[in-house]
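Researcher: Structure for this, please.
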Amino acid sequence: MMFTFLSKWIRAKYLLNICSFNNRRSFCKSTEDYRSPLSDVRVLDLTRIIAGPYCTMILGDLGAEILKVERPGSGDEARKWGPPFIEGTQESVYFLSVNRNKKSICIDLKKGKDIIYELAKKCDVLIENYVPGKLKDMGLGYEDISKIAPHIVYCSLTGYGYEGPYANRPGYDVIAASIGGLLHITGEKNGPPCKVGVAVTDLATGLYAHGAILTALYQRKKSNKGQWIQCNLLATQVASLINIGSNYLNAGKKAVRWGSEHESIVPYEAFPTKDGYMTVGTGSDTQFLDLLKRMQLTELLKCDKFKNNQARVEKRDELLPLLRKEFKKRSNKEWALIFEGASFPYGPINTIGQVFEDPQIKHMKMVQELEHSTGNRVKVVGPPVTYSYAVNKARFAPPMLGQHTDDILKNILDYTNDEIQILKKNKIVQ
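Model: Predicted structure, token format:
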């Protein structure tokens, strides 16, 4: 009994010390908060649309306190990107997808510059995605913020970077994907260029920024200095060309559109079936032989002209029509039973409805429900990364516009109710 009591006392004392050490946070929530890797990190989020909010959502899932600064009256433009909207509101479900685990405060950046300064002093990270020079003109550029908060990790997301002929252009995912070659290599062989179904360049930029911010925070532990991080959509897109870029740079090989086929691996594509499409890839000769055996294509097993991947790539126009003809004879469900336990990867092309009914998706509990401030229950796709100890999860629903203005001003900056009312009267905050 005494040992149990002492163990509990020591643990409570330890957690209390953690809370005391973490003096930038307003309070220590729980053991779960302690287990959240970024629970001692506060982020001043001046981003909107997709890339920046996606980045800060990832940080928020890991426990960082995200202070989302929005324009009074309108807020993040993505709030109006609908329909569809959350039931009974004009809040878009698009906004819902990248803004969980955040607190919203409305500040007029021109009138409320001093409030941003005060918040920067008490934050670890400032992230923004304005056109280069716009925040500097307001006195909120990196040079300005670093003078009053030298510890700050200041991350800028732009379309094309701070220098060069495109620097002052507004940047959107599909434009960067166009200039950076992604649309050129996406689509059917003889069809027009095609954009990807989601904003992958935005998402990749947000992921790069998330990693860069964590790197800078880690480096700050050794240097005691903040720094300026610059990420941009176009550089991210070009870096994401991987083998396609390498093919051109090292072999002068120009890329073409392949539809669902693969340039260097055959077979590797979405095959039409009786009721849909089944995607199959054979990355080795052993996998190809397994495919032929399961499809009972015994005549091809004896055919030397398809004996290795190089031969199959060279003779794709002979091999693929044979496989396509066979795939059309059965349904996706029938092929899935035939391929069960196969050495090669395979899977149906699911509709979005089928995605969320998929047994593996359900097993991973990818969909989570959160209580929205409107009283509605909203569903979100949770974080895809799990840890053996750390907490990484959707904790609370995206905020309504300005939902936490008073809370942030009171509990982080120690403003009085009278001071907050004066700021609201002068339309500095909302």
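Researcher: Any notable elements?
Model: The chain has 20 helices and eleven strands. The mean pLDDT is 92.
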